[in-house]
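Re: beginner question about structure tokens

> Can someone show what the tokenized structure looks like for a real chain? I only ever see the sequence side.

Sure, here's an example I had lying around. Input first:
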Amino acid sequence: MKKLIFASLALMCSFPLFSQVTFGLKAGLATTDVDVSALNIGNGAGEELVFQLENANYGLHAGLFVQAQVGVFLIQPEVLFNSTTADFRVTDMRNGQMVEKILREKYQHLDIPLMMGFKLGPVRLMGGPVGHIFLQSESEIYNIAGYDQMFDKLTYGWQAGAGIDIWKFMIDLRYEGNFENYGNHISVGGTPYSFDNTPSRWLASLSFRF
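And the corresponding structure tokens:
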């Protein structure tokens, strides 16, 4: 992440070399797309704890961006606050009984995309790496005995997409992939677990340039 931050700062310092520099605010929605099998955690004695993703809900993001342009080439670092929620169907088959509940977790991250691309008329085509800095979470699953969270402070992904400029407004649609398996923060009895696939997202946003 330090390399990504240093790269963003270096680019910002070089912005006076670009023919046009603007900054602005952006906000939008995101949908998480992930196809994962149930996570089964057993102790070998017939007792089992099962996590099934019930619903990955819409997320919200908002923050700042700086855009530099020379010719048709664009560089656009961003800093965005991102909040998402997910519902899990948790089945606890321990202590001689079975209890099934739908429980919610809420996650908050600071996303730092470093986008680069081209502008052809009002249309922009951009892509680049993104870092996700974990901030905090809230979870109803703490009611399950032995459950804990072990979030990585930093995870990486990538984004690519297109946008269109209308006066001072910018409309963007991006696809995001990530390099870590979904739910890799799950810990039961001090042992880390995760689902069997990586998450992806579609992000739609509206920005205003000053």
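Each token stands for a local structural state, so reading them left to right follows the chain. The first helix runs from residue 2 to 13.
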